[in-house]
Amino acid sequence: MITVMKKDNKTMMKLVVGTEAMFFISLIMAFVYMAYNSGFEPYEVKALDIKTTGIFTVLLLSSSFTFWRAEKNYEKGKIKKLKIWLIATIVLGTVFLFGQGKEYWRLVQDNITLNGSVFGTSFYTLTGFHGFHVFVGLIILMIILIMTFLGDFNKKNSTVVSTVGIYWHFVDVVWIFVFTVVYVLPKFTNI
Amino acid sequence: MNESIEIPEPTTHFPGVGVSTDQGLLQWISSVDHKMIGIMYLLMASLFFLLGGIEALLMRIQLAIPNNHFLGPETYNQFFTMHGTTMVFLVGMPAVLGFSVYFSPLMIGANEMAFPRMNSFSLWISFFGGCLLYFSFFAGGAPDVGWFNYAPLNEKNFSISQGIDYYSLGLLLSGIGSVSTAINLIVTILNYRITGLALNRLPLFVWMILVNSFLIIAAFPSLNAALAMLLLDRQFHAHFFNTMNGGSALLWQHLFWIFGHPEVYILILPSFGILSEVFQVFSRKPIFGYAFVAASTVAIALLAFGVWAHHMFAVGMGNTVNAFFSAGSMLIGIPTGVKIFNWLATMYGGKIQFTNSMLFAIAFLFEFTIGGLTGIAFSIVPIDWQLTDTYFVVAHLHYVLIGGTFFGLFAGLFYWFPKMTGRKLDEKAGRWFFWLFVIGFNATFFIQHILGMIGMPRRVYTYPNLPWYGILNFISTAGAFMMGASILLLFYIIVRDARQGKEVGNDPWDAFTLEWYTKSPPPLKNFDEVPAINSPLPLWELKYGNNSNDNGDEKG
Amino acid sequence: MSYLQQIFLLQSVENPASEQADKINRLFNYFNMAAAGMLLLVGFLIVYICIRFRQRKGDSNMPIAGKQNKKLELLMIGGPFLLLVFFFYQTITVMNSVSPSQDPNGKNPDVIITGHQWWWEVDYPKAKVITANEVHLPVGKPLLLEMRSADVIHDWWVPELGNKMDLIPTKKRYLSLNINKPGNYIGACSEFCGAQHAWMRIHVIAETEADFNDWLAANEKSAVAPKDGLAVTGAILFQTKTCANCHRIQGTAAISTAGPDLTHLAARDELLTGLMPNDSANLFKWVDQPQEVKPGAHMPDFKFKKDTVNAIVHYLLQLK
Lengths: 191, 556, 320
Fold this sequence. Notes:
heterotrimer, A: mainly alpha, Four Helix Bundle (Hemerythrin (Met), subunit A), 6 helices, B: mainly alpha, Cytochrome C Oxidase, Chain A, 65% helix
């Protein structure tokens, strides 16, 4: 007998997600450790805008929904719908990054910087790495979109779209955790 | 959905290194063949082994007599840092990954790894990371605060060079190589097994590599996070570890050791796998307690994440925390140590053949037991409080890393060299290497237990003329040079026998696993067809009939 | 274990001189016996099995089927497990007895030791004594040592006195100590702390309480006034050549604690945290060219004239 080599991108992506999850766990641990070890200044924690960021959070999470729709349409061979839902995902992700940028700008104006305090260090690193992962995800999505326009996904037998989906959903799930630890929990505990 | 992959391949399968044809050096550099990549990982490990070994010998010269002035403190500190960093990341990891990527596909009946191009990428980024690290010597100075690089000493305000930035970047790059190889190995082992090869019938080497790969992808991110934070501190004045600005020195230690402890298991599990195969072949008996050995490996991997703070017992975390990590460390000693008895029981009742590979395996049993026992000493917190950060630790770590990891790798080298090159390493010359190395190794490191007990701390560029310090250090240095000489002999043997060694067929050892089914060296396409698999020892059935070798049914 | 003491006369974990070191030593010896037993067992099995089951001439290569033995497997796991239970119990008891808590519970420390890159600042808060490197301690009473750091992580370790303890910047750590007998106890910094980590040795002089109090009283006094012309010159140079910017001499205008306190420098046995004996030749070498003597130390090469060095050394060596 002979081994039939079955290409398996989804397992590979799940493992990538696994290792990146451990990376974010380390960053979150550092954030929490800094909060309890050195302590954050109350005015810094209060400076975070949970309402605005909450709205942008909803938009990011919606992009998971739009990508799911994109996947489903691809499975049914509806290429036009695939393109639309992909574009929606990219737009939502970009808006999220724009919102993060605005939040950063506002905080910097308030003198909360990476090198200004322990809070600044922890906050910008954790949210910054997340934002970087979103950015990388957007690049990948744009490549997928271009490939769709070039006709690469006209047949239904590719695993690329669902594989990318695993990464994109991961990025959103991470944000849920980061948002909870950075924005939500400080409002209800004594950091 | 099944897709069969046609990888366009060159025509020769073991090219020379000529530059003029596209079947020479260019084929090596551009190869995506897992076997060539495996060999290149081993070559990378050998190169850095020489560099790390030279660093060690220079250090031992400096330490041969008290109050020596052969190396100044700044130079010595760079050498001990680079020696440790090199041996762990640029020798241990590539050696382990080299054997993994070469033999995992072969032992499961596959023709290639899941992602050949990623395999090549992993190799070259690892190599580049190593080169970047070594470039620091030419860029103002290598990192000089130890391979675990504690904070706040690793911060910019305590640095006299950029060495630590090179350390951080070099390790980030090499780390990417390790993690991507691990992902590649997992997908390969899970998906590319020949039909009938259930997970509970995996050859133990493959099983160890599978578990090991999960360890790699879970452990490296902690180091990557720490290195990223350190770079932010050093380059952008962030405050993670900068105690003068609210940062935490202990945060570095936690992040580092959450990586660092699993890392030592990452370095030993593949050797456990190699030894499991070697003991079976050269005792002519299947492993005693297959299910236990397999299950204990998983136990080790899980427990590995619960013991890291045993590196921090002297930090003052409080006795409750100390007790927790002490218990975990003792507990993990059981699945690790009992394997020694499993291997002994494998040999018991068998027909032992004292090939060089088997000699290293047998020596491993004794040396690793010493290393493991001193490890248990350290899990006993009050003993750790006396002996941590002394030469007793240096002795312990070298017994487990050399006596453990390296002896396993040497056993693998002598076992698999015929498969990789089609020629055997000369047994007689190899025996000289074995004895020189073992005697040198024990002379160098056994004595260091005593040095630790009489008060010599580690990482010191010199020491005062206290009783016994001089003579013991001198003997240790002599042993180190004996090791160095034996390694030169080994390299000579390898280079000579790669060209002139006795040629062999598919199965020179009359072994039991699938890699011996194909030619030596295997052609570019490993297998045209593979026999049916009913056990972890498929060739045994093929050659000797079903001699009830199957211990794999009961999985603990 | 007395013959071991004879072999290793100097500092050794087998030569305990404190209650803490004693308890740890006992546990270590139990461990060594168990470990030696285990190693002998493994060694014996290896030799026995290799001899008895070697493949003899004429033996076929035919492999032999293995036999399962669940009972043996359980024994192999159970035996070591029981041993470990014993050692874990010992771990908890000895650990708690030797180092009860990192919370001083309101007790004031007897000594505060602050680690600097590459010297020890030693403060006796009850007596308001600040000195450097040589640590005097009374025997026969429970002592609480507080460990701090001014820069990076250091570690205090004197093998004959027992467990080590890290000195961590921004944190306070505590070491409990009951020294049994008077003596000179040698140790070393045991956490790599930079270029001159090797020469951050520890020297503890344990003495009877009476002797200790005498020493403390002598150290509470300010520095003696310079006795002769050269020493007066030296004292003036000490201020004008900026020595006072780092070094304190109690009773003078030099009050900085950035570097080691020199008020009673002449009473110490060693210089430079264990690097060399304290005499005029060595002190001259140091003040003349610090970077030659202890490269990397934070004292720069001032490139003084030889006369300047001479005067300063002469002055310092009068500071008993």
